[in-house]
């Protein structure tokens, strides 16, 4: 369902497991995951520093988009992960996690790489730092997007610095 450091400062939320993830029971182990690893390395992080999970925890047949009832069914598990890890920064990968956590953000083509402060629907905190990124799979097929995603990853370091300087006040 999720993998990585339970004390991570950064949680990545993707979409749903693909074929390889479904087989291994670990998020982002296929081609998109290799690219994610590369991006993490570029900001001096690796998988053991972060926590990686998905909006939906079972593979939608044929890799179709998750359906609303599947997103709803997975939400309590994702919310529990976020409550346990209590990250400083949540990184949304792709449109489904962006829609959940930063619903008022514009289209990803406009807001990719941006840092947002919004409520956290998992913890009830009023202020949570977010970075909205393209899904890494988008970079696999388009070389120019790959470069954009690489550049956008540096926003994570900026958000972490900002979040550390402004600790979240929890009720
Ligand atoms: N794409 C996702 O969104 N999540 C995975 O775990 C793998 C591919």
Bound molecules: uracil
What is the β-strand count? 6
* SSE pattern, N- to C-terminal: EEHHEHEHHEEHHH
Q: What is the helical fraction, as a range of percent?
A: 40-55%
Shape: globular
Q: Oligomerization state of this entry?
A: single chain
Average of pLDDT: 95
How big is the Rg? 15 Å
- What is the spatial order of strands in the main beta sheet? 1-3-2-4-6-5
Q: Class by helix and strand content? A: alpha/beta
Largest sheet: 6 strands, mixed
The number of helices is 8
Q: Which regions have little confidence, pLDDT < 50, spanning 5+ residues?
A: none
End-to-end CA span: 28 Å
Bin the strand percentage: 15-25%
Give a quick precis of the structure.
The protein is α/β, with parallel strands linked by helices and 171 residues long. It has helices at residues 19-24, 31-42, 68-85, 95-101, 108-111, 136-141, 143-152, 154-165, and strands at residues 2-4, 10-14, 51-54, 89-93, 114-118, 128-133.
């Amino acid at each position: 369902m999720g993998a990585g450091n339970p004390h991570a400062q950064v949680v990545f939320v993707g979409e749903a497991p693909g074929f390889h993830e479904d087989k291994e029971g670990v998020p982002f182990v296929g081609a998109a995951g290799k690219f994610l690893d590369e991006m993490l390395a570029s900001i001096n992080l690796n998988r053991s520093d972060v926590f990686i999970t998905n909006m939906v925890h079972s593979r939608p047949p044929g890799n179709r988009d998750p359906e609303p009832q599947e997103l709803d069914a997975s939400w309590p598990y994702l919310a529990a992960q976020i409550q346990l890890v209590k990250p400083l920064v949540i990184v949304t990968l792709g449109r489904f996690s962006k829609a959940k956590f930063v619903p008022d953000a514009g289209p990803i083509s406009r807001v990719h790489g941006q840092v947002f402060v919004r409520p956290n629907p998992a913890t009830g905190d009023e202020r949570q730092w977010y970075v909205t990124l393209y899904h890494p799979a988008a970079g696999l097929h388009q070389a120019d997007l790959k470069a954009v995603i690489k550049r956008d990853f540096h926003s994570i370091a900026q958000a972490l610095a900002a979040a550390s300087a402004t600790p979240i006040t929890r009720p």
